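[Discussion] Sanity-checking designs against the backbone

I'm trying to build intuition for which residues belong where. Below is a C-alpha cell string of 317 positions. I'd appreciate it if someone posts a full sequence so I can compare it with mine line by line.
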C-alpha cells in the first residue's frame, strides 16, 4: 500500500473539536491525514510539523489546496515552542500528536524501519544523526542488551545482544534483513505469530530517534501553548509511549499526587494553568477500524483540555 491511513480519525476530531478561527498544531504531519481533516472540519489554521523532510515535501500539494491555512515546518515536535515562536505563533487552540512512524516510512525499504523488506539499517526519521546500524555495530554487548530491554521490553535482550556481537565480528550488520535473521536465529516466533524481530526493531527505532524524550518535551510545551478551552490529543501505539502520556495528562489534570505542604514547590501559591481529562481513560479504535487497519489495533487516544490560563479563574472549556 502506498500512503498512510489515518488512525482513529473520527475520535481525534471529536476530541480536538476544531472551531472556526482556531489555530491548531499537527505535530506529526506524516501523510497529512489529520491536518486535512482538521482543515475540512472548521475554517481554521493548521501549523504542521514533521521531522521527516519527505513528509514536508509531500505536504506542499495539501498546502496549495488550503491557501494561507496550512503552514508546514520541518523539525522535531519536541522543539515546538521554538519552531512556532520563530513563526510568530505563541498560543494554540489545539495540538494533536500521532506518534511513531507513517506507512510512507515503514513501507519504504530504503528508510530501514522494516524487518519485512531488506534495506539499509537506518531508521532515522529526520535523515540525520546516528543510525540503527551505528548503534548495532558500535555499542557494547551490555549496552545493546539494556537498550533492547528498555525500549523493546525484550525479555531475550541478553541472548540477542550476544548474537549481534558475534555476527558483527564476522562483518558489520548493515541491513535490516541481516539483523532480522540474527534475531530470528535466537528467538522462534511465539504463538501470537508476532515476528521475533518486532521488539528489537522497535527498541532501535525509539533510541535512534529519541522518541520518548521527544514525547516528554512535546507534552510539556503543548501544555504551555494551549489557550483556555484548547485541547491536547495524543494517539500512542505502544505501552512505553502511552505510559508517558497517561502520567503527564493525569498529573496535569490533578489526578496524580500533588507535592506535599512541606515541599518547597507548594510555597508558590499562584495557580498554574488548569486542565481536565477529556475522557477518563484511553479511547481505543472500533472493532471495524482494527479489522480494516492492522496498524490501528494497538492505538490508544488520550486527550486533555486546558480549563484556565495561569492565574485565571477556571472557565468552562
Ligand atoms: C504516524 S505518522 C502521522 C500520520 C498522520 N497523522 C496522517 O494522518 O497522515 C507520524 C509522523 O510523525 C513524524 N514524527 C515522529 N516523531 C516526530 C518528532 N519527534 N518530531 C516531528 N515529527 C515526528 C514521523 O516522521 C511521521 O511522519
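Best answer:
Here's mine. Compare freely.
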Amino acid at each position: 500500500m502506498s500512503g498512510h491511513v489515518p488512525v482513529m480519525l473520527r475520535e481525534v476530531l471529536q476530541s480536538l473539536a476544531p472551531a472556526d478561527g482556531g489555530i491548531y498544531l499537527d505535530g506529526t504531519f506524516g501523510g497529512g491525514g489529520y491536518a486535512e481533516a482538521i482543515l475540512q472540519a472548521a475554517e481554521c489554521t493548521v501549523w504542521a510539523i514533521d521531522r521527516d523532510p519527505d513528509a514536508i515535501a509531500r505536504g506542499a500539494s495539501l498546502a496549495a489546496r488550503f491557501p494561507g491555512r496550512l503552514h508546514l515546518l520541518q523539525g522535531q515536535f519536541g522543539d515546538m515552542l521554538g519552531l512556532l515562536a520563530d513563526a510568530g505563533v505563541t498560543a494554540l487552540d489545539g495540538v494533536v500528536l500521532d506518534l511513531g512512524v507513517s506507512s510512507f516510512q515503514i513501507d519504504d525499504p530504503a528508510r530501514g524501519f522494516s524487518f519485512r523488506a531488506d534495506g539499509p539499517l537506518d531508521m532515522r526519521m529526520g535523515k540525520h544523526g546516528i543510525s540503527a546500524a551505528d548503534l548495532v555495530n558500535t555499542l557494547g554487548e551490555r549496552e545493546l542488551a539494556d537498550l533492547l530491554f528498555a525500549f523493546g521490553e525484550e525479555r531475550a535482550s541478553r541472548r540477542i545482544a550476544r548474537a549481534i556481537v558475534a555476527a558483527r565480528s564476522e562483518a558489520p550488520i548493515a541491513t535490516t534483513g541481516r539483523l532480522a535473521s540474527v534475531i530470528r536465529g535466537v528467538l522462534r516466533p511465539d504463538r501470537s505469530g508476532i515476528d521475533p524481530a518486532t521488539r528489537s526493531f522497535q527498541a532501535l527505532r525509539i533510541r535512534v530517534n529519541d522518541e520518548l524524550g521527544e514525547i516528554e518535551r512535546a507534552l510539556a510545551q503543548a501544555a504551555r501553548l494551549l489557550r483556555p478551552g484548547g485541547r491536547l490529543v495524543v494517539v500512542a501505539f505502544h505501552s512505553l509511549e502511552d505510559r508517558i502520556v497517561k502520567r503527564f495528562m493525569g498529573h496535569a489534570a490533578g489526578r496524580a499526587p500533588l507535592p506535599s505542604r512541606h515541599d518547597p514547590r507548594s510555597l508558590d501559591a499562584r495557580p498554574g494553568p488548569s486542565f481536565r481529562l477529556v475522557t477518563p481513560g484511553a479511547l481505543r479504535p472500533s472493532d471495524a477500524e482494527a479489522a480494516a487497519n492492522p496498524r490501528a489495533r494497538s492505538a490508544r487516544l488520550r486527550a486533555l483540555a486546558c480549563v484556565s490560563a495561569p492565574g485565571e479563574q477556571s472557565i468552562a472549556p
